[in-house]
Each structure stands twice: as structure tokens, then as C-alpha cells.
## 1
Amino acid sequence: MSLRRQAARGTLVNTAFLVGVNLLGLVRGFVLARFLTRTDYGLFGIVVISLGTLMWLRQSGVGDKYVQQREADQELAFQRAFTLEALSMALFMVIFAAAVPLVALAYGRHELLGIGYVCVLMLPALALQAPLWIHYRRMDFARQRTLQAVDPIVSFAVAVGLAAAGAGYWAPIVGVTAGAWAAAIVAVWSSPYRPAFRYDRGTLRSYLTFSWPLALAGLGGIVVAQGTVIAVSAHLGVAATGVVVLAATVVQFADRLDQVVSGTLYPAVCAVADRTELLLESFVKTNRLALMWALPFGAGLALFAGPLVHHLLGDRWAPGIPLLRLLGLSAAVGQLAFNWDSYLRARGTTRPIGVAAVASAVLFCAVTLPLLVLDGLTGVGIGMLVQSVAMVLLRLHYLRALFGGFAPLRHVAGAVAPVLPAVGAVLLARAGGWGAVAQVVLFALVTVAATWALERELLREATGYLRGATA
């Protein structure tokens, strides 16, 4: 099978698994919002975001570097990478355990102590999931995604069951921990190579050179995500933090197809990293394919945030409507050139990734925080939109340096064109007094029609790879 066809079929496999799994996560977010109070949801969000942002700091890039390497003895290469991952996780566990009391003190909530230390128990499970890298590097996506699906399925079942039983904020925390350990057990059990500790100083140097900009990117992510939660909690209260967490849960669904495409292509991109013309072709085409989903989702969220909240979540979440609209626009903009970092990592040029993260953190401090003080949750949404626009411009700058023939304006215009007729049609229908359901149907139909009219050749090429009709 050619690399193109293998990547195309991998995209189909990843889409089938990840869309289903992440739809499950979206449903879980809505179900928990029904069972939990906004304060409980906010407490859960504080711990998850605190853990997640510290995980960004821990972004060692060990898995990415393992996929990129071309050692003769692949079992030894895996064991050396696994050793570095385990050491990194052990250090991170100490840091996180020490940070738990500080987080509880910062928010003035003693409940965060118990929640945080339960999350510490989850961390070894994340290191034990390292054997999934092996399937990923081999582009054995069906095996990899089947094993990965264990985590969200177990997490969903445990969290929803406990929430229905009245466990409050413990429901999602215990669910996340149970899912992580279930995935770790099946990953180790099915590993093609035996996990073992093999330390090598030369391997450590190689991985550090690759990884330090990714760690810097993690630090920038901490500033933005954790800064948002702390600032919103301090200025507007924990209930407002729950609104931010719920809005982020909904908006993240726009990223899922991007993650499918990026995750599928990275091993293939590593295999042809020295062929710039092929990298450019794959970058442009995969961006256009992913944006067929991401841009309509973001635009649709901006258009229909009000009915979504009133009819599905309940009026107590109404303060989040302006934030949802702005984050929908931010998500749509942020998908442009979304997988730029995959190409830089495949080439071993990770420094721009760190630079972009630092720039995002600076914009957050200079723009988003002042807007939060001036205009509350709406100010947060405006600030995030400004950050998204700035990050896209920075990505396009680096991509022009990587791909000499890349035309950023043409790329942006081509990506946005299919969704504009749908937005215009909905605004006209709304002015004419159409109901919300009719507007959603109209939006979907016009989007599909415009996408087919403008992108039919690319869609035919992609389906040709899946059918095996294209080499």
C-alpha cells in the first residue's frame, strides 16, 4: 500500500474511532452539567485544567521523537524512550503533588486537596500507556485507536454512574482516573515490545535537543489556561469558572478532526521529511479537508449558541452564551494551518513552536486579562479571539519560511469560502423570522452544497485513496 493510501485509510480509521470517542466526551460534558452544580463543575474544571496545564509543562516530546527516530533496533529504541518517559513522569508526580496545596490555597477551596491527590494516582498510568507509540509509529491505527478508546469509554461509564448516584465533583475525577488505568493495563498487555528501563546518555541529549521548545510551549500553555481559570475565579467566582470549563468542553469538539488528521499524518510526514514539495502538498490538502468540518462547527456555534444553551443545557448556563459565541469564532479561526507544528517536528525544527507559545502567553497577559476585568466573560472571549488571529498569522509566517511556494492569503481564502454562503443564508433566514431548527437545517444544507461546489476535486481524490482507486 502506498504511503498516501495508508495515510488516507488511517484517517478513516481514526475518524471512526475518535469522532465516536470524542462525541462520547461531549455527551459526558452535557450529562455532567445536568447532574452537577456549576460550583461542582467549576471545582472539577480547576483540577483538570491545573493537571492539564502542568502536563503541558511536562511535554517532553518523547513520543514524537520516538516516532521520528530510525534506529536499527526498534525494541531497544522503545525501551530507551520508555525509560525517559517514566523518569519524566516520576519528576512530574513530585511537582504536581507539591503543587496541590498551592492550588487549593490559590482558590481558597479545601476540597481541592483530596481531588488533587486522587489525580496524582492517575499519573503512573499515563506513562504505562507508552506502548501505544509502537502501533502509532507502525501506522497500525486500528490497533492504536482501539486500545486508546478504553480510556474515554471507562471514564464515561464511571463518571456518569457516580454523578447519577449523587457523588458530585468526585464523579468526573474518579471517572478520569479509572479510564487512565484501564487504558494503561490494556496498553502494557498488548505491547509488541517488552517495557524495560534502558538509560542512555546520548539518547537523553538527542531527546532534550528536540524537546526543550516543546516544554517552553507547555509553559506558555500553562500561563494561558491556568491564568484564565485563576483570573476568572478570582474576579467572577467559581460558578463563572464552571461556565468557562463547559464552554471549553464544547469548543474543543472543533479540534477533534484536526487531531485525527494530525495524528494520522505525523508518522507519514516523518517518513518523507526531506521532500519539501510533498510536505507542502500534504499540508495544503489536509488543511482543506479538516477545515471542511472545523470552520462550519465554529461558525455554527457562534450562530446557535443561544438555542444550544436554552434548549439543551438550561437557563442557568445563560451567562455563557456570549462566551460560547466568541469561542466558536476563535475555534474557527484557530483551525487555519492547525497542523503546522507536525511538519516542524518531523523536520526536527521545534524552536518556532516554543516561540509561538510564548507569544500567545504575552498576548494573554496584555489583552485577555485586561478585557476580563473590563467586560467579564465576554472580555475573555474577545481576548481569545485576538489570540487566535495572532497565532494564525505567526503560523503562516513560519510556513512561508518552510515552504517557499506557500501562498497564505490564497490558503485562507480557499478555506473560508465554503462557509460564508451558509452564514449569510442563516442571517437572512433569522431576519425573516425562521425558527432555530429550520436555521440549523438551512446552515447544514448550504454548507454541504457550497463545500461540494468548491472542493469536489479534493473530495474525489480523498475518497479515491480510501477506495484504492488512487495510487
## 2
Amino acid sequence: MQLKSIEMVGFKSFADRTTVELKDGITGVVGPNGCGKSNIVDALRWCLGEMSAKSLRSKHMMDVIFAGSSTRAPVNLSEVTVTFDNQHRLLPIDYSEVQISRRLFRSGESEYFLNKTQCRLKDIRDLLMDTGIGEGYSILAQGEVAFVVNAKPEERRELFEEAAGIAKYKSRREETLRKLEKVDQDLSRLNDIVSMVKDQMTSLEAAAKKAKLFQKLKEELKVLEVADFLNQIKTTNEKIGSWQGKAASLKNQAQETVTQLDLAESEATTNQLTLDDADRELYRLNSAILELDKQIHHFDQSIQFAEQRAREYAQKQEKCEAQIADYGSNIKNTEDKIAEIRKEIEQAKIDAVQLKDAFEKERAAWEVLREERKALEARKDHYSESLYQMAGEMNGWVNEQNRLNSLLYNKEFDMSSAKKELEKSQVEEKRLAEEAE
């Protein structure tokens, strides 16, 4: 495996797109202090996943983006692409040439690409692990040679493990242990949730039993109330029948009294006729007249007594009729209550059916909403991927615009220089023409 090239744009002092080709043999970069030699090594380390700003000789990670100069505006993007020759398949990927790219926006967003396909930093580290590239011994910055020589046995062991290919498996083992620890935590949390749900189920079961008992007792109470109403209706009907019999008996007695009164009136009329006939025999029939007077007096008392009894019977009849009306009203109220209870029972059945239908509808609607949510999440992922692609394209357009602005600036500078040369040439031509004259 060979490092073929490093392409930088907007990284530290490399505002324009700069490519460093590394051909066969030894490649050296020379120049005065401060010309950016170490920035090439920093670009390589940063592209391969370096996350420490201190290792890149910066205070913050945003310092790797070109901050501008007196003649150049700052850029919004820093990008480095490293190309490896993978003909011997040292990297575990089926490509003869591997490109690794890293972008950093001034907004703080970072992106990684593997052969121009967006990926994760973990994918790049897994690809480079066990090759010595990145965090291994292949890149030694200033002062790190002395660090390796004077390193402790534990620190040297990391380099030897990296060279022997053990670091990859140790990293995987640590990652697996972290996953197992996380699984243990999830299991512990799940056990807590199960325990809590069991407690809730116990209380809910008790509440459900109480609710069922309440429903059962409520149904029994309704049955008993209906039976009590029916019993009251039966008793009331019996009392009404008894009072109706008594009222009929009183009516019969009143009718007999009226008949007796009629007979008494008839007899009085007969007696009056007899008295009229007996006026001629007054002296002869005095005794009979006195007897008849006694009989008339007796009949008058009987009539008064009969009238009083008739009045009493009429009052009793009115009371009986009032009681009959009250009993009829009670019967009607009882029948209305029974009808209302039956309506409540029917309404409760209808409400139960409606609640069940509403529950099924809500459940179906919930299923539909869940499917819609899944579809929306899929669309969201699709739109997020499209946004990432559009952001990449926009960044490419911004870079292209910066490049064109830089080219325009250079062209304008060249035109200004050419204009100045033209003016000098015209002055010189005029001077030579004067001399020639």
C-alpha cells in the first residue's frame, strides 16, 4: 500500500485547492519556516480521523479552516482527500485505489467520505485499523521520535501491538465489552420495568376484580330493585282490589239505604193519604193518629240517620276514590321507573356496543397512524439523505465560487499589471519618438 496524493482546500494555510503528489521513492517537502510544511502532515492526520485539536497545533477544531488574510476572504469549508494505492489489497476493501475524505463546515458539521461515498468515522477507523495508519507508528511528528525512544514499556507495548495486528482485536474486544455492559444495563433497566409493570399489574388486577364485583353487585342491585318495584306493584294492585271491593260494598249499602228511603217516602205518602182520609174519622181514630205520628217521628229519625249514613258513605267513597287515584298514580310512577330502568339498561347495552366499536375504530386508526409514522420516518430519512447530498453539492458550488473569485481576482490583478505595463510602454514609445525626432 502506497500513499499517492494529498489534496487540500481551505485547510489552514491552503486556501486554494492544493495537491501534493507522492511518487515512488522518497518525497521531501522543503521550505522556510512558516511556509506550511507541517500543515501537510496535520492535513493527513486530520483526514484520517484525528479528533484532538491540540495534536493539530490548534486551540479549537474550527482553527483548521482557512480564516482569511489581508487579500483573501475566509472560507466556510475545509476539506482534505487522501488517496492510497490498494492494488495489494492491504486495506480490506475491494478497490485498487482508496480515497478518504473529510469535510468540516464553519457551522460545526463534519462529514467523512470513503471513495466519495458518505460514511462514519468508525468505518474509516475500522478500515485503517491493523495497518499502522492513523493512530499507529506510521506518522511521527516533531518531538515524537524522542517520545518513542523514551516511552514506558506500556506505551511501547501499544506500538508493538499495533505492528503485530493485535490492536484491532483489542479494540473489538473493548467495544464488545462496552456493548455487553450496555446490554447488562439495559437488562437491569428492563428487569426494573418488568418489576414495576408486575406491581402495576397486581394493583390493576385487584382494581379489575373490584370493578367486576362492583358491576356484578350493580346488576344484582338492579335486579333486586326491579323485583322490589314489581312486588310493590303487586301489593298495590292487591290493596287497590281490596279498596275497590270495599268501595263496591259501600256503594251497595248506599243503594240499599236509598231504596229504604224511597220505601219510607212511599209509606209516608200512603200514611199522609190515610191521614187525609181519616180526618173525617178524627175522633174515632185519634189513637191511630197518635200511633201514626209516632211512626212518622220514627221514620223521620230513620231518614235523618239514613241521610247521615249516606253522607258518611259519600265521604268514605270520596276518600276511597282519592286513595284509588293515589294508588293509580303510584302504579304509573312505578311503571315509569321500570320503563326508565329498562331504557337505562338498553342504553347501557347500546353504550357498551358503541364503546367497543369506538375502541376498535381508535385501534384501527392507531394502526393507520403507526403505519403513516413509519412511512413519514422513511421519507424523513430519504429527505435527510437528499439534504446531505444537496449540502455537499452546495459546498462544492461554494468552493467553485471561491475558486472562480480567486481566479477573477488574479485575472484582475494581471489586467492591472498589464495596464501599467501598457502605460509604461506608451510613455517609453513617446519618449523614443521624441528622441527619434
## 3
Amino acid sequence: MNAKVRTMALACAIVLFIGGLASAAPVIKDYSSTGGNPQNKTGPKDRMYLVRSGDRITFSVQGYEKCVWFVDKVRQAEKSGAFAWTVPDKKGIWEIRAEAGGAWVEWAVSNLPKSEAPVIFDYFVNGKI
């Protein structure tokens, strides 16, 4: 009887372990943004930079078939790992967010001139952090 109990316990432990692997914390494997006329951007991995009104920016996340996209915390779409967004014709700072399987990545883009940008935004885009 002890052998049967041990075998059942081992089988349950294996099932729980495999189930735990399947539900491990999600990881966004890669991300990028392209397009527009960015300033203070050194590559597709930059997540905070300046843009112009009317710029069309494509944000992408790799590793998931479906993402939920947000602009300033307002849900935009559930779609593949890419989201194209046009910078509004008004001054501002926008937060673009992709959520997938519990993981997320954010970008902050602004079209404010340096004289109107908050100090913290200027601090980040100039690469001081």
C-alpha cells in the first residue's frame, strides 16, 4: 500500500510541477518602436522619446499572439503584437502600454518643446538615467 501512495504522490507532484511551469510568470521576449520623426531616440528599444504631431509610430511586442494596447490607460485594441498609433495634433505626453499574459511594457512619447516639457521627461530623454 505504501508503494501505491508514494507512486500517487509522485504522480501528483509531477503534474503540479508541470502545471507550474506552464503558468510561470510571463516574459515579454522583445519590444520595439519604429516610425515617425523621433528625437532623442538612439534605437528601436528606446521607450521614452520626442515625436512630432502626425507621426505614425508602430509599437511592437514579441512573444505573444495577442496583446491588449492602451493609450493613456484607455484600452485601444486587442490584437497581434503590433500597434500603429498616430500622434495627435495637440501638445502632450502619451503613455503607450502593451499587456500580454500578465506582462507589460510601456513607452512615453511627447511632442512638447523643451521649454514646455516637465523636467522629469527631459531628464529621461537626455539619457541621464
